[in-house]
Amino acid sequence: MRKKLLLLIPNLGLGGAQRVFHDHSVELGRQYTVTEAVFNLEGGNMYPSQNELVSLDVAGGGSPLEKLRNFARRITRLKALKHRLATDVCVSHLEGADYVNLLSKGSEKVILCIHGSKLHDANIRGAAGWLRKKVLMPGLYNRADRIVTVSRDINPELIGGFGVKPEKLVTINNFFEVKQIEEKAQEALTAAEQAVYEAAPVLVTSGRLSLQKNQAPLLDCFAALLKRQPAKLVFVGDGELRTELVAHARNLGLRVYEAWSAAELTPEYDVYFMGLQQNPFKYIRPATLFVFPSAWEGFPMALGEAMICGLPVVTTDCPTGPREILAPETSKPATPIRRAERATYGMLMPMLNHPASLTADLGVWTETLHELLQNVVERQHLGKLAQQRMQDFTREKIFSQWIDVIQDVLTR
């Protein structure tokens, strides 16, 4: 009989972890009976698969007391669901789901999938952040049968910062549907979009407009770059910082296009907020450079997708993921880099969230972008190397590792 897997995530709204969850569900469904579970469907189901989806139907938010009650309800309902399905293995994605998975554990095996840095996540703050870092993670994570991290550099954080036993940990990078992305990237731009791309070199970035992605300093850097040469900056994505970022761009004197407004799309703007796009790859492939200013990551999907599209990439050397992708032969430096590093597969750059060095770091970014925009040979070379590197992260090469982990815990 096929073993029964339950995959748990807080929601199936837009997000990198949700996309990975979907990919795992589809692939694991080829070998196991897979059921998906979410806390609720308030964000909709942005990544549907062919597997059964069950909502625990427990809302989030509210007062601290309401949050505690909802937390208890999630544990109780997941425990009942595991029993009803006769679950063999429950795999949880994202921290909130991890706690509920561990506290509802019965005879089934439990695997956690850790998608990002915990030590550097600026969203983990305040009293709740203290509780998560000092009580929940150290107290619960070792109850898991196995913990899968998406980046090698998450492991020492979990061991040193939260006391996780090294033998619990295994790293399996995210995989990419390389051929599918390559095909989607060939979709043509509209005539108006093409006119923008032909007007000047285009810097493109994609991802949620959020604290983690740290796009505000990129606007500062771009404003400085415009004083040296023509260029366009294209944002693909949306998020809670949309209004803030648009206002910041305008305060810098940049001409801003917003896809959600009634304005006509023309080459007269400097910065283009294109919003959510069903096919972001068609905006990435024809660009000149991909820029990625994140403050922290896990194993960044947007960065890898840009590399599949053949773009030279310029990214912060943030925790975690970019160095592992671009410079796999090197280790995480003891102190943050303060200059541009020409890595094997792209450019690693200073982070843009250190106030004491921000002015100098922005200068390094501006100079590096200017030099790359002037050097077509180097850009083409980096783009080819980027495509080559992403062949290491195809579904076929990566996903067998997940099967091995699941089979291993089932036999223990």
From TrEMBL:
It comes from Hymenobacter cavernae. This is Glycosyl transferase. InterPro entries: Glyco_trans_4-like_N. GO terms for molecular function: transferase activity. Keywords: Transferase. The keyword Transferase applies. Residues 15-177 form the Glycosyltransferase subfamily 4-like N-terminal domain. It comes from the Bacteria. The keyword Transferase applies.
